């Protein structure tokens, strides 16, 4: 018989918050793919791995994003949190595996935040941020603010919003 994972034993993060973040992120990624914000086939290529081009998503929302940041205090606060406390990136050093602050630089505001939200998702899946040793308050704040950033980004483009909210 397969033994179930005891979630309380391996993480102190709120399961509902983790679930909401992951579903909202997955919907954003789905909407980006449906809008063809993806790496196109190269000449002669018949197929390729489907990869979202976050730069294309950012290009489509940046103008409205700037307006939304001015008009929506919740979105502005979420963006400010990510700017002040950006998610760390997991790296390998001579001392072992660790998390390091690595700033995302020289990109549009919306792209910087989309890439930071993607890093939070990557950390949940690959980086051990759901371990018992994580800073629960910080991780929870990144998840909550990440949800706000995603929902704000989706509202900045009609087609993105349509695909985000549609049934699969």
The residue-averaged pLDDT reads: 90
Global structural class: mainly alpha
Q: Compute the separation of the termini in Å.
A: 33 Å
Count the DSSP helices: 7
Major beta-sheet overview: 2 strands, antiparallel
> In terms of per-residue confidence, which ranges show pLDDT below 50 for 5 or more consecutive residues?
none
| Strand runs, count | 2
Estimate percent helicity.
Answer: 55-70%
Shape: globular
- What is the string of SSEs from the N terminus onward? HHHHEEHHH
- What's the alpha carbon Rg, rounded to whole Å? 17 Å
Order of adjacent strands in the largest pleated sheet: 1-2
Structure description:
The chain has a two-stranded antiparallel ribbon with strand order 1-2. The relative contact order is 0.20. Helices cover 59% and strands 6% of the residues. The model has no long low-confidence stretch (mean pLDDT 90). It is built from 7 helices and 2 strands; from the N terminus they run ααααββααα. It is mainly α and 168 residues long.
């Amino acid at each position: 018989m397969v033994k179930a994972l005891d979630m309380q034993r391996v993480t102190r993060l709120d399961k509902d918050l983790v679930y909401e973040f992951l579903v909202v992120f997955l919907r954003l990624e789905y909407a980006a793919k449906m809008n063809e914000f993806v790496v196109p086939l190269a000449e002669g290529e018949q197929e390729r791995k489907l990869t979202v081009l976050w730069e294309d998503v950012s290009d489509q929302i940046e103008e409205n994003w700037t307006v939304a940041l001015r008009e929506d205090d919740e979105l502005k606060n979420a963006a400010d949190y990510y700017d002040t406390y950006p998610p760390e990136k997991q790296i390998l050093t001579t001392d072992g595996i660790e998390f390091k602050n690595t700033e995302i630089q020289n990109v549009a505001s919306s792209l910087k935040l989309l890439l930071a939200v993607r890093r939070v998702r990557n950390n949940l899946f690959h980086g051990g941020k759901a371990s018992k040793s994580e800073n629960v308050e910080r991780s929870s704040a990144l998840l909550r603010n990440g949800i706000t950033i995603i929902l704000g980004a989706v509202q900045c483009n009609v087609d993105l919003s349509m695909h985000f909210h549609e049934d699969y």
